[in-house]
Specification:
alpha+beta; elongated; Rossmann fold; about 25% strand; 7-stranded antiparallel sheet; homotetramer; Glutamine Phosphoribosylpyrophosphate, subunit 1, domain 1
């Protein structure tokens, strides 16, 4: 699986202090949303300080850096970069000085009118030092702040100009502010632990720090925490719609997160069950491609009545510095990452469940691995529809030219992958997958129909 | 789970070269056996060179260091240190010069007559620069080499003096030699890929590099590879017995490894099934503590007919530099490492399967996490007998004073952990767990009866 | 000596390419002007890329980073930070996107109207991400660029608003632009090597890369290099005066640099000679405090007829990570940094020449070191006048409260230092020190009279 | 100048503790003797611990590592490796366990019967893990210790077998022992500070920590410090001769050191004076190649009556990671390292004094630099005789094939270097250079006559 989320955000207000440390653990829980860079900004006694760098949360922060950031409010960010080698300048939160003091801005999502906004600010003499939307958003806030009376009001006015996906956590020396775009693309939830108020991209981060999940922010909502008082601004909620990225349920979010009332784990199990109904096949064993295919495999097994088992063991130690085998060597990356459970698959007809196919290369290698281990048949079932279009709202689903399903029929794909049969979940099954979700979804990558018109 | 294996070894002869790279991938597959230090020694054109350091395989080696080590034979080692902060001097393979040239020695296990041997060598004027048994073994070989005609003969003679656990891979400029102690404590297997011959602590490392598993070495056997010819010395096999560490099946080995004809995954599933028979209980859901409890949980579920599910999600990013929450903070290490799947466990009677209990602290926290998530009952089932005695043969099972089962009855432990019921696998079930294993086992940590008398 | 220059800049245009590498060597030659951070931005085929970080030039750049920056234009910067631990964000050159594309800005000096300019830009909605004047200057250029037709014109207009010291090297994808403030505080010179045109804070950087020194930029001058054509803008030269920081001659600049026609080495030798005339004393030996006091000591010796010799040897290996001896230890930092040449000073009346006294602590320790080594008398001669006022133009001469000469008479200082006599160079001798300099000087730190009125 | 010393040693006994820190500063003062690796071993309460690594003293040690080593005795080592990339294993002090406990061994010098000793120990079953003579020496001590009653006696007996250069500092849990080979090749001195006793390769290290120089160890002498009592063993002094490496005076030692009663600085000044007598020439200016040629240049100037001046400024920031200009670039390493003082040399006949010529390449580039800077003549004077033979006793003077003077006449060398004249100090002048030295010298690199017969 090669699709990445672009970011995760976390924010905490706690009059008892220690907020940088809480954010550190919150970011640990969100690390799956971005492994390239991370950062924390904290406010202590009205003074903002920050630390950020390329690397994982566990590598970027030490006891010393956390102690230095101690404070009563903090915001944090984990980042995945879609293009090229990550530039350190793009690590977030962005910290800045503007007409009313200092701000820290952490952003998950992707704007679609970046270029227009940037040009507009440049024509007022603005300069840009990063490639991030956070900088655009910061300018928008700073410009509006000249014409209104508070940071939240400035943010509210700025949001009218921002088109696209953004879940934001913003911090001034006095306020912690969270906001979600009016289309509701990316998740953002709120929780509490005693007097502390927290915001996080996913509820798993609240669990990690012992906070109680309270609710998702509404599309378009702004929540302000100031001196322990929480209030909401809903000016931008009026024309809001609800279009949560359905791929959060399928792959991005952690299974122990709940988004808009829907358990992510259950959504995946359900996807597997629906897949079994749509694409049944006679077989002896259902296995998942670890880790993300396991839940759907369990659902497929339960629905089909075919035994569930483990067929592949994932090497837990493959890290960022893994040296991929090159052409000349007979080693093979998939073999190093996944070990087949010969005793399980030998002599069996195996249904292998994965959550998506992008280029098909990895699937082909796994199918081959299973056959070598003795599987007599390998049926590939995919717990999502085929990708036919890129994502403009914060994930790195690639261009059409790199999407196998844009150029090949189901039969061709099956042949390329070497599977005995192949089935994708249907688009119409997606809503059945998330029966408890109190939201609509964006499924543009499967349908080419987006909530916002894309100008190319 | 806090028990660690002390080491993993790998060796390869390949006339086509590229052996350091193959060893690198082999060690990646064995990383679970030791994360403190690692190293590779390679022979190229009769010249031995090596690279080793503290750290994970992926961090210690770069393209450059691997290229510099390129050769037609290589041995590698991953190390876990039981005592104090790891000293760099103890990283292996040990490379040395002796009367007949150079040797590289990689060792998995633990000798029980270390002190006596060391004293004996010191009384001949020897000096010791590390704390490793590898150095003792090297001396033993070097001393015997004065009196015989080949390295393998020297090793064979030396083995008569070595008491304890050792699976060795030794390399001279001309030969790759593997050996296993006559008690057969630690696994060591052999495989081939074309003209290449390989040795590894576990078969998963052979799979990772595309080699075909051939067999385990016999207890006491020495296998020599020289210029592509493989031969065996079985002088030390005569009085050999077979005492494979049973905990390799229960916890240490990777589930996709096969040891002595027995799939590790199947052993764990079977342990779960036996556990269900020995300790049945009415419940709604069986879950495993990830990752090592999952297999047994599946076995328990299948045997008991109770539904299997996931109840805990493991954070995949907790690394060596993770800053553990301290006393003052309200964060909690277990919560950060494991997220409960509320939607799964809520309102249910849960059977939680783990592979062992050492001090009981972690189990107590997990039980509490599940209750918070809504489990109405939590029944703890352990797929191994209680630890009542330490290990002297290469794992860090602690002293009696740190083993909860040495000081508390089953009822006390259950209460301390806060479980609704508690059941351990019986000692007598251990043999049923591994029906296909062509070996005997050492279960001294559960029975206090060891294959070698321990002088304290 | 504890006074630091704040920065050095370098720029090169070379149609033959390899400009990042040339800049690397140029920055090496300017490293004495700033050791905290450094950076290089290069333009290759109209594309700008950059690399910068905390650390010395030799540590920040590798073959790989230099190769990645290869181009036909480059600008570089070395930085010394006056306040707190250096923030990585402040490393330069600043690279930015503005209305007309990209710019890289490297700056040496200090503005005195920073706050006013920043406020003005903030009231237009600007945001600030660093603490550097480079960001202020960039805004000023970006704002003016909206109203004129070229980057150089924008810079020229911006310069009318900038008050203070600035020697700039600015690069757009098409142009390399150098500029000097109309007061002429900081040096900036130009040179050529074949078709290549270069700018550098000091001529020693031109020598280092084999370029021929051509001239200083005039105060207020802007020089533009575009496609090999060099032209000058002198709009801001009309009201320009000439106030080169005299401390560049006394201490900052490298002795092998020439500034405004005056050799720095000769200025220092001359300062020593003038000091000998103003403060003669009977003695046996003249020594300098290495390295910066050596030239003046030679001048003092030659003028006085007293023998010149070495009396102190400097440890060449004291680096950034040197652990300073703490209170409890009997070690002593001066002793570790300077070794006395007992055979030279024993039994002699010694004249010790240093270039300045800030707090007097180090001088006291050196005097004591020389007495221990057997000097019968130690006469301290300082080749600069006493500091009585801070610098606002780019050096870290401290506040009055930290300047010994602000609070103590000559006699008191002599006694505190423990010297047998003490003499400072007079202010009026400063002009005699630099007979060949084709410029006026700023001597505000010695006279409290600055070329620009300082609003406190 | 490309000749390197191989090591420096330091040892301290201080009942008041803090010995690792004192050793740290002592090693800082000896850093010029080896920049590849360093280490400190300390004894605290009879327990030995150590820290060592590749790198400079300032990089290898931190406050934490020093605090962890705190003790009442310590030995330290700085290392320069002559062959290949430095192996970490070779860093010293070597710490080892042997029959009587633990030892730390630090060694400066080079044995000439290494191979014979190693073979002998190997034939007793010994193994070797490093390439250092320290390991050989340790074996020799360990073997003798079996037959006698104390470590010092064992060392004394071992010394009868060691042929070559060795200045040693050895530490057991109870004793600090220093020893010098019976030929007296490498310096080793002793000093005191209150109750503390110290040993160092050079007296500058004693000065650095405020200790008073007491004396050199005699050739063959062993000094033992135990519980504050100092005693000498002189068994090996009977047949001892005195052959201090004359190149210590010419180049290796720090000018502020005194060796055997002779100031190193004065020796160099005197060498310059003798050079002036042997090779006078009409000229306007005498300059030294910094740093090591400066002292001799002063001596040449004083003796000849020609003005002394600075002609070349050395870049103080060229470090280990300096990227040397490659073929394709027009930059030039000498130019980056040395800046010419144009104002000094322009239009002048210059005498340039350097301390040695190995291949002649650097000299040629410097001569050319001076001519470019306007020197009308450049006369090269070398304050040492031509190298005609390698060193076997602890420096890296290369093989004959790399020594220009082995293959070319004086006239040829002069022409290759491009000097107007060339003069070397004569061998017979060497003794005149060190009138105060209470020792004989080894000048084998200039005469091919060594104190010990070299078997090739």
């Amino acid at each position: 699986m090669a699709i990445h989320e672009e970011c995760g955000v976390f924010g905490v207000y706690n009059p008892a202090g220690d907020c940088a440390r809480t954010t550190y653990y919150g970011l640990y829980a969100l690390q799956h949303r971005g492994q390239e860079a991370c950062g924390i900004a904290a406010v202590n006694d009205r003074e903002l300080s920050s630390h950020k760098d390329l690397g994982l949360v566990g590598d970027v922060f030490t006891e010393e850096t956390l102690d230095a950031l101690n404070g009563t409010m903090a915001v944090g960010h984990v980042r995945y970069a879609t293009t090229g080698a990550g530039r350190r300048e793009n690590a977030q939160p962005l910290t800045l000085k503007y007409v009313k003091g200092t701000l820290a801005v952490a952003h998950n999502g992707n704007l679609v009118n970046t270029q227009a906004l940037r040009t507009q600010f440049e024509y007022r003499g603005g300069i840009f030092q990063t490639d991030t939307d956070s900088e655009i958003i910061s300018y928008a806030i700073a410009q509006e702040r000249l014409r209104c009376h508070s940071a939240e009001e400035a943010l509210s006015r700025a949001m009218k100009h921002l088109r696209g996906a953004y879940s934001l956590v913003v911090m001034s020396p006095r306020k912690l502010i969270a906001a979600r775009d009016p289309w509701g693309f990316r998740p953002l939830c709120m929780g509490r632990r005693g007097d502390a108020v927290m915001f996080a991209s996913e509820s798993c981060a609240l669990d990690a720090v012992g906070a109680k999940y309270e609710r998702e922010l509404e599309p378009g909502e702004i929540v302000i925490v100031e001196d322990g008082t929480v209030k909401s601004l809903r000016e931008n909620c009026q024309d809001a719609t609800s279009n949560l990225c359905v791929f959060e349920y399928i792959y991005f979010a952690r299974p122990d997160s709940e988004i808009a009332g829907q358990s992510v784990h259950e959504a995946r199990v359900k996807a597997g069950a629906l897949l079994a109904r749509e694409h049944p096949v006679k077989a002896d064993l259902v296995i998942g491609v670890p880790d993300s295919g396991l839940d759907a495999a369990m659902g497929y097994a339960a629905e089909s009545g075919i035994a569930y088992g483990e067929g592949l063991v994932k090497n837990r130690y493959i890290g960022r510095t893994f040296i991929t085998p090159d052409q000349r060597s007979r080693e093979n990356a998939v073999r190093i990452k996944l070990g087949p459970l010969r005793s399980q698959v030998e002599g069996k007809r195996v249904i292998m469940v994965d959550d998506s196919i992008v280029r098909g290369t990895t699937s082909r290698q796994i199918v081959s691995l299973l056959r070598e281990a003795g599987a007599t048949q390998v049926h590939l079932r995919v717990s999502a529809p085929p990708f036919i279009s890129p994502c403009y709202f914060g994930t790195d689903i690639p261009d059409k030219k790199n999407l196998i399903a844009c150029h090949h029929s189901l039969e061709e794909i099956q042949e390329m992958i070497g599977a005995d049969s192949l089935g994708f979940l249907s688009v119409k099954a997606l809503s059945g997958m998330i029966p408890n979700a109190q939201c609509g979804v964006c499924d543009g990558c499967f349908t080419e129909q987006y909530p916002i018109e894309i100008l190319k």
